[in-house]
């Protein structure tokens, strides 16, 4: 028969549902199509290359500094606590032989996710480590570069492929989680980011070579 707890089940199910990563359709440009010329600067390809190279070159340092600022047990149990296996992170299955369009879309999904994740990490670190000036500065710099890159990818997607909408899957928000969970989530995301940005740089840079 019905247990007295039955009524609780839908509520629990709802909570679990809400904790799943958020899927979203990111509108690259407002409106229902790509605007005409003027969206792209002439050196957009070169800018994009440079931004990916900068992110790749600074990712490891950002992660190391982040780790240092979280203190114990993160420094001594990094492999266990920062293992990214359990978190959502956009798949990045493209390679050098993939079509350029596929590469650009995968890049967009990656950096839109990264931008949202950096927003959470920065908010958490401002709260948990307000004195970590260098870390906060690096987080802001990385966010700024990421947003510039997104705007350049937006322009390339529109101009070359008439793509103005991409389905982006975002991670879990860290809002309301414990301090430990916030630190851990940031650590997992940034560790995975170091791996994926290296791969992204290897795949993207040849696609954007000056021809
Ligand atoms: C590269 O990616 C394409 C899809 O973008 C896939 O069909 C192909 O098998 C991949 N090649 C290698 C060597 O992984
Ligand atoms: C980046 O993330 C912030 C939230 O932290 C959001 O408001 C903004 O629209 C995002 N920018 C892009 C280009 O996706
Ligand atoms: C935190 O992450 C969630 C999910 O990725 C995102 O929707 C939200 O905008 C982020 N918050 C901030 C402050 O960036
Ligand atoms: C942030 O960017 C500015 C301007 O490019 C640079 O001067 C500064 O050294 C950077 N800071 C960090 C911590 O990367
Ligand atoms: C591309 O990146 C550059 C450098 O960050 C930035 O100034 C520019 O606004 C970005 N967007 C476009 C559409 O050029
Ligand atoms: C990405 O950064 C790593 C570490 O700095 C470097 O060894 C590698 O050559 C870079 N990859 C590309 C394609 O620039």
Write the layout of secondary structure elements.
Elements: H1 9-19, E1 23-27, H2 44-70, H3 78-81, H4 100-128, H5 133-161, E2 165-169, H6 179-207
Antiparallel strand pairs: 1-2
Helix pairs in contact: 2-5, 2-6, 4-5, 4-6
The protein binds 2-acetamido-2-deoxy-beta-D-glucopyranose (6 copies).
One 2-acetamido-2-deoxy-beta-D-glucopyranose binds at residues 40-41, 44, 47, 148, 151-152, 155.
Sum up the structure in keywords.
211 residues; mainly alpha; Growth Hormone, Chain: A; two-stranded antiparallel sheet; 6 helices; 5% strand; globular; disordered N terminus; binds 2-acetamido-2-deoxy-beta-D-glucopyranose
Describe what you observe in this structure:
With 211 residues, the protein is mainly α. The chain has a single domain, classed as Growth Hormone, Chain: A, CATH 1.20.1250.10. It has helices spanning 9-19, 44-70, 78-81, 100-128, 133-161, 179-207, and strands at 23-27, 165-169. Strands 1-2 form a two-stranded antiparallel sheet. Helix 2 (44-70) runs antiparallel to helix 6 and helix 4 (100-128) runs antiparallel to helix 6. The longest helix has 29 residues, at 100-128. It is globular. Mean pLDDT is 86; it is low at 1-19. One 2-acetamido-2-deoxy-beta-D-glucopyranose (NAG) binds next to helix 2 and helix 5.
């Amino acid at each position: 028969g019905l247990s007295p707890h039955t009524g609780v089940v839908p509520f629990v199910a709802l909570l679990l549902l809400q904790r799943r990563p958020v899927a979203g359709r990111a509108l690259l440009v407002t409106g229902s199509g790509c605007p005409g010329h003027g969206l792209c600067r002439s050196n957009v390809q070169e800018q994009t290359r440079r931004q990916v190279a900068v992110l790749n070159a600074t990712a490891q340092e950002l992660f190391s500094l982040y780790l240092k600022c979280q203190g114990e047990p993160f420094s001594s149990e990094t492999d266990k606590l920062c293992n990214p296996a359990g978190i959502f992170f956009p798949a990045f299955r493209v390679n050098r032989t993939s079509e350029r369009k596929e590469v650009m879309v995968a890049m967009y999904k990656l950096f839109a996710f990264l931008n949202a994740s950096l927003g959470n990490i920065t908010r958490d670190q401002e709260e948990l480590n307000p004195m970590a000036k260098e870390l906060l500065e690096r987080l802001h710099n990385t966010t700024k570069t990421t947003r510039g890159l997104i705007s350049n990818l937006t322009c390339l997607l529109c101009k070359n492929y008439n793509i103005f909408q991409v389905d982006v899957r975002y991670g879990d928000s860290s809002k309301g989680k414990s301090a430990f969970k916030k630190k851990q989530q940031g650590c997992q995301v940034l560790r995975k980011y170091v791996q994926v940005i290296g791969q992204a740089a290897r795949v993207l840079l040849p696609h954007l070579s000056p021809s």
